[in-house]
Amino acid sequence: xxxxxxxxxxxxxxxxxxxxxxxxxxxxxxxxxxxxxxxxxxxxxxxxxxxxxxxxxxxxxxxxxxxxxxxxxxxxxxxxxxxxxxxxxxxxxxxxxxxxxxxxxxxxxxxxxxxxxxxxxxxxxxxxxxxxxxxxxxxxxxxxxxxxxxxxxxxxxxxxxxxxxxxxxxxxxxxxxxxxxxxxxxxxxxxxxxxxxxxxxxxxxxxxxxxxxxxxxxxxxxxxxxxxxxxxxxxxxxxxxxxxxxxxxxxxxxxxxxxxxxxxxxxxxxxxxxxxxxxxxxxxxxxxxxxxxxxxxxxxxxxxxxxxxxxxxxxxxxxxxxxxxxxxxxxxxxxxxxxxxxxxxxxxxxxxxxxxxxxxxxxxxxxxxxxxxxxxxxxxxxxxxxxxxxxxxxxxxxxxxxxxxxxxxxxxxxxxxxxxxxxxxxxxx
Length: 429
Hints:
The protein is an alpha/beta fold. The protein folds into two domains: 2-118, Rossmann fold (3-Layer(aba) Sandwich), CATH 3.40.50; 137-424, Alpha-Beta Horseshoe (pyruvate-formate lyase- activating enzyme), CATH 3.80.30.20. The chain contains 16 helices and 14 strands. The strands form four sheets. Strands 1-2-3-4-5 form a five-stranded mixed sheet. 38% of the residues are buried. The mean pLDDT is 94.
């Protein structure tokens, strides 16, 4: 929507469309197609690969570019997809010149089978209000919200599995409050009812060396007055950037939920992940939510290369102690350019829990260690909610299919990064 707004502003006599269906016939009629890809899985997606081939075969003059978070590893994209270039990083300030062909800054491309990378040195100030809003955005559903609204960029963390600091940097850049308010009012006119505030950690809005609680509370109070508290959520929080004032604001102005990235119940694994927090700190932050009458969920990562059975059992113990209102479990994903990616490349396949068959009951179901832990922890989390959930055959099957799918996806990504090991590791391993 942001890139679309920039293009609409700078190409006034050109039709700019946002398309979510890759089978849309408009793609065949386009002069330029920009694929916004956020997951490594998109690079190995047969439908996306086929799309680029079909477009190139049908229209020899078409230009196809890839942007989004995957632009952090352009070498892989240029070798895997039939595209003209990769728009690097935050493309708001470079996209216009790239499309016009007047500058290569912020563009990676193949030339005589050699990869040319021109770094993007421009960081947008986030003050623009020009977003292109699709007419059907009110029907979009992303985990219960019509839209995740960006309020700031950057993250202070050093988590080994996360790409955000590398992509957006560690300095927090925030949108002016008036810009956010205007965008929400405009979105509401287009049918948006439910908004989730995004940015990685909601409370870091306008962070300047320390939390700016007044600005954060002012933000959510104003958004709540426009949308209503039952239509506003601030789901993503770090346990080290909340306090009583922030949680009371979330209780009073939003649906009253937060989601912490807990990741593990083992201090050793938290240290390996460079989370910068401890098990005790996680438990204290959960208790603070209870004290403030805020619902609290937790995200967990299993199958980290250094996770032992003891580490995993500690995570199960943590869930018993925490009694979270919601639990989300994912298998460790080696996103290219992250420290986790480097670690996975150093780990022999026969030592990788996402490739080793589980030796216990989940092995009999054809699951790997990572898949078995994903299934097991999903079930365990439901059993230790404040109001426990009965695990029916249907629910068990749902978690089984999800765990199996995650495992298959992680193996696809792992095989991809092994294929491009020399591109991802300066010296190779």
